[in-house]
Amino acid sequence: MSKLITKVESRWTEVGGLLMHARVSVNPVGAELPSVVLVHGLGVSSRYMVPLAEHLGRTISVYAPDLPGFGKSAGAARALNIDELADALAAWMQAMNLDQSVLLGNSFGSQIVVALALRHPQCIARAVLVAPTMDPRAPTVIRQIMRLLRDAPREPLSLLPLAIRDYLTTGLRRGFQTLRYAIEDRIEDRLPHVHVPTLVVGGARDPVVPRGWVEEVARLLPHGRAVLIPRAAHAVNYNSPQELAHVVRMFMDERLTPVASVEKQETSEDLRRIEVR
Question: Which architecture does CATH list for 8-273?
C-alpha cells in the first residue's frame, strides 16, 4: 500500500484578510498532469478528502482546502452562500498560483465547483462532480437529512467521529444556513452552462444521490460523462478512494472518454454498462 499513497501536509494562506488552511500532497512523482483541487462537502472539512489525496497525490499535485468557516480555516461571522464560497475558493487558488486546475467536489462541494466554473472559468480546466447535490426530487431540509441518515450506516465506521468533529467545529447555525443555501441552489439550471469536460461519479449504494440523478446531471452538462462505482456510498472519496483515484486519472489523460460518454438518448441500462469494476 505504501507504493500507492503519498503524504499530505498542512499549509496556511491569507486570503482576503482570512487565514485559509489546506492539505497538500508532498512530492508527487513525475507530476505532469494539471493540479487537482478537492472541494469538501457541507459541514465537514478537507480531512475526509485525505484518503483520496493520498492516492492521487502519488503522481498528481493535490490541494484540499478548508473553505472559509469550515475545518481549520477562519470564516466570516455569517455563513457564505454558494457563489461567495466559490469566489473565496477562486481567490485562494489565485493566491496559490493554481490556474486551469481540475476541480473535484464531493456532494455540496460539487455545487461550489459548478459555481466556480461559471464565475471564474480561468481557474478550471476540468471538473469532477462526485455524488453531486441537490437532487431536485428531495427539495427540503427534512428529506435531505433523511437521506443522509440512510447513508450513514453504509459509510466506513471511521468516518463517523471525523464527521462529528467537523460538524461541531462548523456549528449548528452555519451548518443549517449552508444547507438552506444548498437546497435553494438550482444546480440543474447551471449545469448546461458549464463548458469544461466534466465527469460525474456516483456511488451505487448512495441514497443521497441516486443513480437517476447521476445520469441526469451528466445529460445536462454539454460535455458530461458518468461513472458509477459499485459498493460506494455517498462519500466516495472516503469509502472508495482507490477506485475514485483510478477513474480521475483516466479522465485526466482522456482514457475514460471512449467508454464513459453519456449521450442524450442513453438510459439507466447504459449507465450500468459503464460501472467501474
Answer: 3-Layer(aba) Sandwich (3.40)
C-alpha cell belonging to residue 175: 451548518
pLDDT at 58: 85
Closest CA to 236 of 156, 169, 180: 156
Q: Which three cell numbers stand for residue 264?
A: 442524450
The 3-state DSSP class for residue 135 equals coil
**Whole-structure pTM over 0.85, yes or no?**
yes
Residue 10's CB is within 10 A of a number of other CB atoms, namely 11
In DSSP terms, which residues pair with 206 in a beta bridge?
none
Residue with cell 453504509: 154
Contact (CB, 8 A) for 91 and 61: no
The residues that bridge with 227 in the sheet, in sequence order, are 201
Task: Show Cβ contacts of residue 270 under 8 Å, excluding neighbours closer than 6 positions.
Answer: 262
Alpha helices in the chain (DSSP H): 50-56, 82-95, 108-119, 141-151, 159-170, 172-184, 187-190, 211-220, 236-239, 241-252, 257-260, 268-273
Q: What residues are paired with 25 via a beta bridge? A: 8
pLDDT digits (tens, 9 = 90+) for 219-270: 999 999 999 999 999 999 999 999 999 999 999 987 654 334 333 334 444 4
The residues spanned by each domain of the chain are 8-273
Q: Are 256 and 249 in contact (CB under 8 A)?
A: no
Lookup: cell for 155: 459509510
Which tens digit of pLDDT belongs to each residue from 124-165?
999 999 999 999 999 899 999 999 999 999 999 999 999 999
> Which cell numbers hold the place of 270?
447504459
